[in-house]
Automatic annotation (TrEMBL):
GO terms for molecular function: DNA-binding transcription factor activity. Coiled coil: none annotated. Residues 17-63 form the HTH marR-type domain. InterPro entries: ATPase_NBD, HTH_MarR-typ, ROK, WH-like_DNA-bd_sf, WH_DNA-bd_sf. This is Transcriptional regulator. It comes from Amycolatopsis regifaucium. It comes from the Bacteria. Belongs to the ROK (NagC/XylR) family. Transmembrane segments: none annotated. Pfam families: MarR_2, ROK. Gene3D superfamilies: 3.30.420.40, Winged helix-like DNA-binding domain superfamily/Winged helix DNA-binding domain. CDD domains: ASKHA_ATPase_ROK.
């Protein structure tokens, strides 16, 4: 941690600005007095910082509503974080669809676009359609701050290192394909669906989770200690590689082996061919040392794209609350 002193005025001001911005980011609106208390920054400094953040378009003073009762004396200043000051996008490129969700800087979805695809489609055609879906979703929305991309296969460092299910997909560099206007981050679809469950789904507030995605293949997402576990090659959870097991009645044994290995608080079932929770819960109770909570995902078709939004939003939050730009 940086040592604060009279010789570090730029760092101190940046830390104060971050404290003010965090307080506003976490609330709908705050009066000046509330903002001073929440940020633990002096009143004059808060006012200066609020002015600076206003010039950057991130914060605005909230005018008194015409219908509000008129206070005695000078009305208290109120401020809010401008979530509409920028946007993030989450793009899923799968065998059967390209789906893009656009969200404001608080993660609230404000736009979407979707197109159906076929598995046999050439990589160039699939990417071209994905670009058009992205363009349609973000059209008319300014300041795209980051893009998250999710797809099938093993994704590591933004590249599809194993992607045999789609023609020409292995070796694809997703940040290179979609970069230019903003930072691009990429991950495989199951890991992003796991992020979405932790953010907005049944795994919210739970830090040790096994996410089971059952469709034409089976894969797992692992959230350990609140962090997504990718593995050395980015292939953690790719149990679909054991095709004879994943496609047979031994699917439950694969899930049970994972539960015994990581001892999660929760197992979430998602995907187009997901079994119902009750039978899996019963079998896991029989096979495992301790009962484990099992829930069915409620995010439906949006799970991967929503996880990609979360990936992009995390990048933006790091930029908003970083001190790295201070010398």
């Amino acid at each position: 941690m940086a040592k604060l002193s009279g010789g570090d005025p730029s760092l101190l001001r940046r830390l104060n600005a971050i404290a003010v911005l965090r307080a506003l980011y976490a609330a709908e609106e705050l009066t000046l007095a509330e903002l001073v208390k929440a940020s633990e920054v002096s009143r004059p400094t808060v006012e200066e910082i609020a002015t600076d953040l206003g010039e950057q378009g991130l914060v605005e003073e909230v005018p008194l509503s015409p219908d509000a009762p008129r206070p005695v004396g000078r009305p208290a200043k109120r401020y809010r974080f401008r979530a509409e000051a920028g946007h993030v996008a989450g793009l899923e490129i799968g065998p059967h669809k390209a789906l893009c969700l656009v969200a404001d800087l608080r993660g609230d979805v404000v736009g979407r676009a979707r197109t159906d695809l076929i598995p046999e489609m050439a990589a160039a055609d699939r990417l071209g359609i994905a670009h058009r879906v992205l363009g349609a979703a973000v059209e008319g929305r300014s300041n795209l701050r980051a893009l998250g991309v999710g797809t099938i296969g093993v994704v590591s460092g933004g590249k599809v290192v194993r992607g045999e299910r789609l023609p020409g997909w292995t070796g694809l560099d997703l940040p290179a394909e979609f970069g230019g206007a903003c930072p691009v981050l990429a991950a495989d679809d199951t890991k992003l669906a796991t992020l979405a469950e932790h953010w907005r789904g049944v795994a919210h507030g739970v830090d040790d989770v096994v996410y089971v995605r059952a469709g034409r293949t089976v894969s797992l997402g692992l959230l350990l200690g609140g962090k997504l576990h990718a593995g050395h090659h980015g292939a953690a959870g790719e149990i679909g590689a054991l095709r004879e097991f994943a496609a047979s009645g031994r699917f439950v044994e694969l899930v049970a082996a994972t539960v015994l290995t990581v001892d999660p608080q929760l197992v979430v079932i998602g995907g187009t061919d997901a079994p119902t929770a009750a039978p899996l819960r019963t079998e896991l109770a029989r096979l495992c040392l301790f009962p484990v909570r099992v829930e069915t995902s409620t995010l439906g078709d949006d799970s991967v794209a929503l996880g990609a939004v979360r990936l992009a939003l995390t990048r933006v939050e790091r930029e908003l609350f970083s001190v790295a730009d201070v010398a």
